[in-house]
């Protein structure tokens, strides 16, 4: 819904301004991440690996690509709060006062879940996953010398997608609050959700063992169940808001 106080051209101009600011933020956070990648970021990413693991590269330029990927991912994570703020500011310009307050209040919640997902991936998922990959069959079959590029790619994809996946509860709450989904519908499709959670777990987790995949899939199911609770709360809030509006109109 376009705000009548602003013309279509003004909305396009504001969109361009928000996109420019967001791009500038991502460029700055990515450049900063590239500067500190070798000293700070790589030791953090390497920490979950078993002690004594040495990474290799067979390409003379093999160190550049992985560190660019690491810097890009770190730039997105660091810049996410400001980028989301720009998105929220653009959206709220076309909303009423109540909807604007609601969206602004949800912004910290969204960020908490995003960074919570990244923390969960780093502290809970990565250690057993990396240990399994770099220890299984080591020396008895072949000495494992992991490539730096593949390791960084695996870690960054896992952490970023877990951060996005943890947005499930706030996303469900917002959709239920505006009446797009209902708790009844979410409960009725639990079988599909469980299958989907294990499919996502298989995609996100780089190992084929069911234990590590379950470490991703089971929390996704729990987040979905938590989302159902939030959807029910949102429905109660919608009904109370509708009753108040009906009383005030009467």
Could you explain the architecture of this structure?
With 250 residues, the protein is an all-alpha fold. It folds into 2 domains: 1-166, no CATH class; 167-250, no CATH class. It contains 8 helices and no strands. The chain has helices at 8-46, 64-92, 97-135, 148-165, 168-177, 183-188, 190-204, 210-249. The radius of gyration is 22 Å and the shape is flat.
Strand residue content: under 5%
Overall shape: flat
As a percent range, the share of helical residues equals over 70%
Q: Indicate the low-confidence ranges by residue numbers.
A: none
Structural class: mainly alpha
- Rg (CA only): 22 Å
User: How many beta-strand runs?
Assistant: 0
Order of helix and strand elements from N to C terminus = HHHHHHHH
Number of domains: 2
**Main beta-sheet strand count, sense and barrel state:** none
- N-to-C span: 27 Å
What is the overall number of helices?
8
Question: What descriptive keywords fit this protein?
Answer:
2 domains; 250 residues; mainly alpha; single chain
Secondary structure blueprint with pairings:
Elements: H1 8-46, H2 64-92, H3 97-135, H4 148-165, H5 168-177, H6 183-188, H7 190-204, H8 210-249
Helix pairs in contact: 1-2, 2-3, 2-4, 3-4, 3-5, 5-8, 7-8
In short, what is this structure?
With 250 residues, the protein is an all-alpha fold. The protein has helices at residues 8-46, 64-92, 97-135, 148-165, 168-177, 183-188, 190-204, 210-249.
């Amino acid at each position: 819904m376009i705000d009548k106080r602003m013309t279509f051209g003004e909305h396009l101009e504001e969109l361009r301004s928000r996109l420019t600011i967001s791009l500038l933020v991502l460029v700055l956070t990515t450049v900063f991440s590239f500067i500190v990648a070798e000293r700070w970021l790589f030791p953090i990413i390497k920490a979950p690996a078993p002690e004594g693991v040495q990474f290799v590269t067979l390409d003379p330029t093999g160190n550049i690509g992985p560190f660019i990927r690491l810097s890009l991912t770190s730039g997105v994570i660091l810049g996410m709060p400001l980028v989301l703020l720009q998105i929220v500011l653009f959206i709220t310009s076309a909303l009423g006062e109540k909807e604007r307050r609601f969206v602004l209040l949800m912004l910290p919640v969204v960020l908490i879940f995003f960074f919570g997902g990244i923390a969960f991936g780093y502290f809970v998922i990565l250690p057993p996953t990396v240990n399994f990959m770099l220890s299984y069959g080591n020396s008895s079959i072949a000495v494992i010398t992991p490539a730096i590029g593949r390791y960084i790619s695996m870690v960054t994809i896992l952490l970023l997608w877990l951060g996005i996946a943890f947005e499930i509860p706030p996303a469900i709450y917002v959709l239920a609050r505006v009446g797009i989904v209902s708790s009844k519908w979410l409960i009725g499709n639990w079988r599909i959700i469980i299958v989907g959670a294990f499919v996502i777990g298989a995609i996100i987790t780089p190992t084929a063992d069911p234990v590590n995949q379950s470490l991703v899939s089971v929390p996704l199911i729990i987040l979905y169940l938590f989302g159902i609770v939030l959807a029910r709360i949102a429905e109660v809030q919608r009904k109370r808001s509708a009753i108040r509006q009906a009383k005030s109109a009467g």
